[in-house]
Design goal:
73% of the residues lie in helices and 0% in strands. By secondary structure, the chain is an all-alpha fold.
């Protein structure tokens, strides 16, 4: 099931119809492409409006400012991740929890090596070091990732307490996010990508289960 805009900050009166939902998603998609291509400095509400083919005031009807648009974009991205995790869980109903965890790891690696997603995360990382708003967004995004990983690994080894699993989830997210620095190309350098994915699976499974 595709993600909704339920958790995304938006003018709720604007999305009471299917047309309103579609327009909101069109705006987010245009913002996503512009942020990835030209960074935060190159993103503007006016440019988004031009890309979607609507007026500036129409964009502002959905998202009141550039920052609220970026916030909505990142939260929607996380909702996409969550929807894919839910889909994996539904499709692997009879699989072990370890298999479910590894399939989710594969999905995360696929997502963070997507060129557009990679560019957006890198931009927010850089901006977070000097911008309080971006820093707050990054903290929220990483918090959601840590919680998702924690819920996947908690109890895989009954001897490991929940508090320890939370610490391990933090390390796992750091490892996955850190892989962005290597700019893995899953298409042009497929063998390298698959080798790294295999190493990541082994490393994270050990971290999830070793006492």
């Amino acid at each position: 099931m595709p993600p909704s805009l339920a958790s995304v900050p938006i003018n709720k009166s604007s999305v009471t119809t299917e047309k309103g939902l579609g327009r909101a998603k069109d705006i987010l998609q245009a913002a996503r492409e512009l942020l990835a291509a030209d960074g935060y400095a190159g993103l503007s509400m006016r440019r988004v409006a031009a890309e979607v083919g609507i007026s500036l005031s129409n964009v502002q009807h959905y998202y009141q400012s550039k920052d609220s648009l970026v916030e909505a974009l990142l939260l929607y991205t996380m909702d996409v991740f969550q929807a894919k995790m839910d889909s994996i869980r539904a499709e692997m109903g009879s699989a072990s929890r370890s298999e479910l965890f590894l399939s989710t790891v594969d999905m995360f690696l696929d997502e963070i090596t997507d060129p557009v997603t990679h560019a957006i995360f890198f931009e927010i990382w850089a901006l977070a070091s000097r911008n309080a708003f971006a820093s707050s967004l990054m903290a929220r995004m990483l918090g959601r990732e840590r919680k998702a990983i924690y819920l996947l690994i908690r109890g895989l080894n009954p001897a490991i307490p929940d508090s320890e699993y939370m610490q391990r989830a933090i390390l796992m997210v750091a490892q996955m996010e850190g892989l962005m620095l290597f700019r893995l190309d899953k298409h042009k350098r497929r063998e390298e990508f698959l080798a790294v994915r295999d190493s990541v699976r082994k490393s994270l499974l050990m971290l999830a289960t070793a006492p």
